Amino acid sequence: MHAVGLTKSFGARTLFEDVSLRLVPGDRLAVVGRNGVGKTTLLRCIAGQVAPDAGEVVLPRGAVVALHDQRPPLGRAITLGEYVAEGLAQVRAIETTMRSLEERMAAGDHGADVMGAYDRAQKELERQDGYAWEAWLERVQRGLGIEPDWVDRPLGSFSGGELTRASLARALVSRPDVLLLDEPTNHLDLQSVEWLEIALAEVDATVVLVSHDRWFLESVTTKVLDLDGEKSKVWPMRYSAFRRAKAEALATQATLAAAQAKEIARLERFVERWSAGTKARQAQSRKKQLGRIERVAAPPTKERAMAFGFPKTERPGRLVVEADGLSVGAGDALLLRNLGFGIERGQRIAVVGPNGAGKTTLVETLIGVRRPTAGRVSLGHRVMVGYFSQHAEELRPERTIIETVLGGTALTNTQARTLLGRFLFSGDVVDRKVEMLSGGERRRLSLVQLIAHGGNLLVLDEPTNHLDIESREALEEALDAYDGTVIMISHDRALIDLVATHTLALEDDGVTIRPGGYSDLARALETERDEVQAAPAAKPKPAPKPSSKATATATKPPRRRLREVEKLEVRIAAVEEELRAVAAQFADPEVMADRGAVAAAGERHVVLERELAWLMHEWETASEAV
What we know:
With about 625 residues, the chain is α/β, with parallel strands linked by helices. It has 20 helices and 18 strands. The relative contact order is 0.09.
């Protein structure tokens, strides 16, 4: 695909201008830039959902384009399974065509037009890997954390995060020629993000994506489109290399512009001094020289970035949080049981685990927002909690921005306005109501409120959601300089690596605390897997007793993984049985005399073989994990 001169404005404001791209299958382009420069709008222009003011997008004939964006599919009276399967509409249309042609062939119509149409449909189905669509659909749903019992539920019964995962699955299962992804890692746990990175490496498509997840960008992308104000430039390199190259280019541009400005000033002084004097001819020559100089523009002044720091805190006791025999649940579901651990002053704990494992429930139980199902939680001496929730639930929509910050604090109006200004809220903006704010603005306002209230134990639930990269880096710097204790839930691997001193991983129905950030966690898990695979069969060790130390382990066997292995074994047996039945058809004279039946049996045999190969791979992976 390629785009030429794409320009888009809203009113008097130009989002982007003269954007041109040329991409081939296998290219993975990251679109980067500050919030508000039109990244999502550019994706919608490529998808044909928004018309550009100028320019055009040119796609290969018959190319399939799939867009995943942040607008959940609301108001549709269908199930989640039906919604995801819409991505398979083209494959199913080909299958319908083939069935119709097979019926004609079975009725004796073996004309050249029928046979030619069947051959073309079969080749197109093979091109789209349509024979393996069922296995691919299940792999995508499993990888993105879509549970089997979700598919029959209506869309209206799901949360916004669950619906955005369904939208991503719908885009992926279509196996498009051009795949457009807007913040694909939002609402995914770390396991699903890692699965998505692998899946995108396998997809034979042109991928254009918007993301603020720096680790994801580095892992996936091969090119970067930088939307910087109204200008744009494609950098043919990975994300980290782009950051370095752009910084070096801006530094070089600034040096050249400064040197040129100095030379221009010298020439202008000469012309002004001698234009009517004894050196008039030389002055005239310098004037012509000035007219021939091609100006080097100084780099644009960098837009205001969110800059802040947390105030000094009162020093608490050594043990900040202690759990003893703790069990937590949501409703009637018991999520975690019999936990024992402690968090000490100054530690920065990153809580990680799959979606639905109980991360938010655990953290809210630790700080008293929820009551424990069993056991005890206690906060240490002089501990003051500051809580930053995932959904900004602490914000009241009817209040203005300034009222939100002043409420419950001792700040003066001037102090509140100064603090808001550091978070890019200034002037009349502070009089806007919370209900009018975007998701990113609400996150920034919640951070202002957190700082205004203070605290020596910060509890942060997905603090980087809806923040652009510059704002995330500012948050990292502030947390790094913060002198208190931090407990944070995050899927931002870069944030975890830069800030966390320990990770608290939810594993089955227990937790394990390990030193280090995300990279340390990944290495530790890999080492543990290698040790399990290398170790000889041995009697199971007794479950450890709860401890008040800053370590904890799972107290029950991985039942979920065992069930997964058992389900896979049942499916493998069923597929093998059907394969034997299909193979037997080739020895049946009646089947062999029917060309349509032979074709159908051959296609089914191919589908089953591919599904069996995928199931065996999944079974091996699950068995190793157990």
